[in-house]
Specification:
By secondary structure, the chain is α+β, with helices and mostly antiparallel strands. It contains six helices and 47 strands. The strands form eleven sheets. Strands 1, 23, 24, 25, 46 and 47 form a six-stranded antiparallel β-sheet that branches. Strands 13, 14, 15, 16 and 17 form a five-stranded antiparallel β-sheet that branches. Strands 18, 19, 20, 21 and 22 form a five-stranded antiparallel β-sheet that branches.
Length: about 750
Amino acid sequence: MTNATRTAWLTAVLCVVVLTCFSQKSDQKNDQGEVLLQTAIHKELVEGKLEDAVQIYKKIVAQPGAGRGTIATALLRMGQCYEKLGDAQAREARKAYERLVREFADQAEIVAQARVRLAAIGAAADGGAVRERQLDPDCGMPAADGRTILCCKDRGLLVRDLVSGRERILAAKPSGTRMPPYLLIGGGSISPDGKKVAYTLLSPPQIRVVGTDGSQDRLLSDQADEGDWRSAGMGARVDDWSPDSRQVLAWVNRKGQKGSQRLLLSVNDGTARVLSTFVDGESSARARFSPDGKHIAYEIKTASVPSKGIFAIPVQGGEPHPLISHPSNNGLVGWTLDARLIFTSDRSGTEALWSLRVRDGRADAEPELVRRDIGSSTPVGIDRNGAYYYWLITDSKEVYRATLDPSSGAVVSGPSLVSLRFVGVSFCPAYSRDGRLLAYASGPDKSQNIRIRDLATGEERELKSQMPDTHQSLAWYPDGSALLMRGWEMGLKPLGFHRLNVTTGEITPVLAKGATGEFATNPSFSPDGRYLYFKAHAEGDLTGDDTRISRLDLQTGGQEDVFLPARPAFVRLFALSPDGTRIVFGARSGKLDYIGVVPVAGGESKVIYEYPAGEFMRAAAGLIWTADGKGVLYQRGGIIGHAEQDPADDLWLMSADGGSPRKLLSLTGIIWSLTVHPNGREIAFSTRALGTEFRVLENLFRPRAGRSESKPSAGQRRPPPPSTRPANAQKELRSNVQSNHANA
């Protein structure tokens, strides 16, 4: 070997050694970044310590050598923490998102999420004219004079003076009840002249009027059917005031009649005039007076058609005219002062705000796009200055893994996130029978896919589901060849069970919804793969009168019932034991939830645990056997009628024979599903944090230049914008959130 060759060879070896050392150090730094990221996410999601999480995210961003994906995720979650901390931190949230978009274009999926948040907080190309603020979630939009506002607090329904800060109770919460006021008082609306408030009581359902000074509280209508807390507002609802403050626009389910009606109620004497009648299968959630007071716009949805249309009907009587009849899903927002009808629509592919010029109750032009990608939200109204008030529905789902001590069942490590790539959209984990793979669903409701992770290598692959809102339940076939999944189509119609071949991606139906309306949930396979066990009940059955555990013979196609609890109890969820001989089930009888065990071959069931009075079990796969079949893992939630917007669930362990349970961990959000690894030392579960935020986009609908406001009718005051309606939106959304928490 010549000296030149020897020198070249030594130089090459030295370069390899240096590069290897550099790579190892880089990997170590990236590993440190991953560890810090897990710690920060735990602080944020599990402990709820947002400020501490922000500080750790900052360390990750500043750490030399941290992976770009790790830094990008840290910036995204940092911005989300700042948003949760309120308006004071909105600027910091915007800075984090803008840096992410500017410096990490190669992290396309994370950047896309940052762009959505930037659009939501008004940081997109609005020139600073449109500004978003988060508001008191217990209040509505200000009255027409901008001075007063309605709020639904612990004391009841009250009016607040925004100048002095003084509050006056208009409808007090009944003494001696523990129910939240928004489940008793259905909210209301301040009249355009600022002198009166129309509001609803839920039990018994009534529409009432009271002065904003608290005087002259009186009944307007008591012709509605009784509602209940799970469907708050089903009896009666205040929609709007007439511009002259003389009439209240209301929706009621009339006593002794099928369907519902929209009424005009005279404030003077309570006389009612029927404007519209809706038959069974039709619903109309919103209606608003036009600025000139001559027409009423309302939305209507029919059970047989997934889309919603918007119509206008003359106040003085006559036939309604269609304003929006597009096959997309459309929802009424309200009117601007320059006579534009504002509505939401998904016709562009995502939910967006649109406007329509209306003249004499008829469409006068084609709809115009106002704002894209508004997310999952419910409109409240538009004020005189063009500010748009709405409820933002937040829904974050994550999948976690934790390690248990097999002897005691105690958690020895975790919980830690399964996916750092997808934020807030992962759920429904399921271990394969051989323990090599973990499947879970990921993505928004309309484009969910299945991800399968190799637990040995950490590698993941994705399978397209081809169905919307698909993965309410996932279960592996015993031989590992396929996954069973269940989903919903538009309008919450069940799709039944389908088999997803994990090799080819082919999807085939297994058990469709029957012709009688029955559908299946909560699947479990027998160990030999012959039988599919599931919970069967009738579509729309809220009482549980027809809920049972059935099984399908996958060889013969025969179906039979396995267990039907004694009435009035009904099954909420269940799990088949690892050896296939027993079923553990959660049931509800009256207001009491309990856990029982029953042999598959038949026989008496045994109650092994009763929930404390007022606590409930969620029907969301929060019950499962331990791997050895000796114990049961289960979820405990909040209190019926007292579930907050941000509930916290506990995970418990108890013997399958009964005895004293032991709490394993507490989590922020609800426990959505549970799965146990065959080795008995690891569990995976998903959590769901579902809530609402009350927000305003200021200056979004400013009157257009050169177009004057609508002229009021003769003898009529200049019309204000749609009246305030704090507790209508607040109560309905909170009740729906609570119903989802308790009954999902």
